[in-house]
Amino acid sequence: MDDQLEMYKECIAKQLEEVDMLSSIYCSPGEMHIFDPGVISDFNEFLENPTTENVMLCLKAHLDYSIKLQCGRPNEKLEVRIELPHMYPLLENAIVIVHTPLLTKNKEIYLKKELEIYIESMDKSETYIYQVLSWLQDHIDDLIQRKASDFEVMTTTTNQEDELLDFERLWIYSHHIKSKTKRQEIVKEARNLELTGFSRPGKPGIICVEGTKENTQEFWRTIRAYGWQKISLCKIESARKAKDKMDKLRRFEGFKEQLFCDDIENSDGVMNMALFLKYLENHNSGYMKKELFGLE
């Protein structure tokens, strides 16, 4: 058995041990929820009999669960969503997303960055979700109580008509986007960074974001770290404009998830190419059919 498969087995075994441990700690009703319990059975079957068929079955699944943490205030909880890439913890970082109405947008951005720094500091030879959850419980109450003004973006008195900014539009192509966690985080991250565009889940996965270069690059750095079978930048479009004219370069209004499927209830459905091409044409982006699919 090759080294990569051995490492994969080690990661899966560590993930199962960690989930078992967390289940014994967060055992109160509604405290821990595994979104697809069948994944645990698939992983155990793979470890017992690592055939090619079982390997392929495992590659289609991720451990994806949520844990509700008690905040300092009565009846207030923090929901933490965790998705584990296949090579967690040895080669890939866990995806940890915090959901709570108790934080303002700027506080959410601050917490996300601090959490990323903390995860980067962890010993990757062992699992670390429990340490992350403990870190969150130690810090969340202080963050909630801090003044919102502590997190306000500093503004300048620069004349907007004279200030030039770099505008950028990124077209991102992925083998697929099926994980609910990734889908939710893509939309949330784009909106937090005030980007416009769309995300098409399913196979293939297509994302377009546009806004200031600083924000589009931050978006790209964030999502590509999630762990993908294949993801790449298909095209980068850039321009420089006065700050007050930046919005004129945007082709999309807001950021939305678009399915382009005949069956709108099934996000895994086959893309209706005609719908997608019409959408591109309506947003002055018809030329992308060649960039994305090689179509003339």
Explain the overall architecture:
This protein has helices at residues 3-25, 38-48, 52-59, 105-120, 129-145, 180-192, 213-224, 273-282, 288-293, and strands spanning 32-34, 63-70, 77-84, 95-99, 164-174, 196-200, 205-212, 231-242, 255-257. The protein has 296 residues and is of the alpha+beta class. The strands form 2 sheets. Strands 8-5-7-6-9 form a 5-stranded mixed β-sheet. The chain has a 4-stranded antiparallel β-sheet with strand order 1-2-3-4. A hairpin with a 6-residue loop joins strand 2 and strand 3. The longest helix has 23 residues, at 3-25. Mean pLDDT is 86; it is low at 154-161.
Secondary-structure blueprint of this entry?
Blueprint: H1 3-25, E1 32-34, H2 38-48, H3 52-59, E2 63-70, E3 77-84, E4 95-99, H4 105-120, H5 129-145, E5 164-174, H6 180-192, E6 196-200, E7 205-212, H7 213-224, E8 231-242, E9 255-257, H8 273-282, H9 288-293
Helix pairs in contact: 1-2, 2-3, 4-5, 6-7
Number of strands: 9
Taking all residues together, what is the mean pLDDT? 86
Structural class: alpha+beta
Strand order of the largest sheet: 8-5-7-6-9
| Helix count, DSSP H or I runs of 4 or more residues | 9
Q: Biggest sheet, open or closed, and with what strands and sense?
A: 5 strands, mixed
Strand content: 15-25%
Helix content: 25-40%
| Silhouette | globular
Amino- and carboxy-terminal Cα gap: 45 Å
Which stretches of 5+ consecutive residues score pLDDT under 50?
Answer: 154-161
Order of helices and strands: HEHHEEEHHEHEEHEEHH
For the CA atoms, what is the radius of gyration?
21 Å
